């Protein structure tokens, strides 16, 4: 398995989901930091600039990443035929072996529509050597995702297993991981805590740097590893807070990202994820 960073580890810097997303020119900075932190994969999901990039720009990014020793993956939200078709173009232009997919999004009336789109496009992705890895993302239970993968029944379709997202579906992470591990094609590793509200009413799920929250890294890796395809990416993400200003948010997410990458590189449970040669040996 290969350790990597996801664009959601750069959420605030890249303006993901905001009215002011970062320009394509920011992506080389992400590639550079991925390499500097000793990671082998950068998963570029939900970047508006990537989706509007020209063929020449995508080719340049691929070359830039290759020169840094970083493999690129992609990701989209909203599994429509149109978006899946366009994203296959992006993935192949970047040399990506995997596209993370969130079912829900603009243009999606219901999950059945997304299932039909994935079924239609799966042969094209398989022919291109790109895996469609559907993520457990807040709104779909693990049982429904397992049923969906069985229904599509394609070697090109599996799951991105996120260790915390399905709390929103009333599933604890150990339940989610146990259910989805047999279908894993990518792992999203993040940490979190559940803390009482300051006003004493209810509680909230909040992010934390890796190994500073409730995620049991050793147990997660132990559960996932027997099912992981060779070379599968373990992508570090994070739920870093918005902060009192954008600069505060960027400062916090940068610190968390670097702490989490260091933790991942040094954690005993994650050492086997590393290749053993050259500068990318485990520490």
TrEMBL record:
UniProt superkingdom: Bacteria
Swiss-Prot/TrEMBL keywords: Carbohydrate metabolism, Isomerase
Coiled coil residues, start to end: none
Gene Ontology MF term list: isomerase activity
Start and end residues of each Xylose isomerase-like TIM barrel domain: 42-253
Keyword Transport attributed: no
Keyword hit for Chloroplast: no
InterPro entries per UniProt: IolE/XylAMocC-like, Xyl_isomerase-like_sf, Xyl_isomerase-like_TIM-brl
Matches recorded under PANTHER family: HYDROXYPYRUVATE ISOMERASE (PTHR12110), XYLOSE ISOMERASE (PTHR12110:SF52)
UniProt name for this protein: Sugar phosphate isomerase/epimerase
Organism: Bogoriella caseilytica
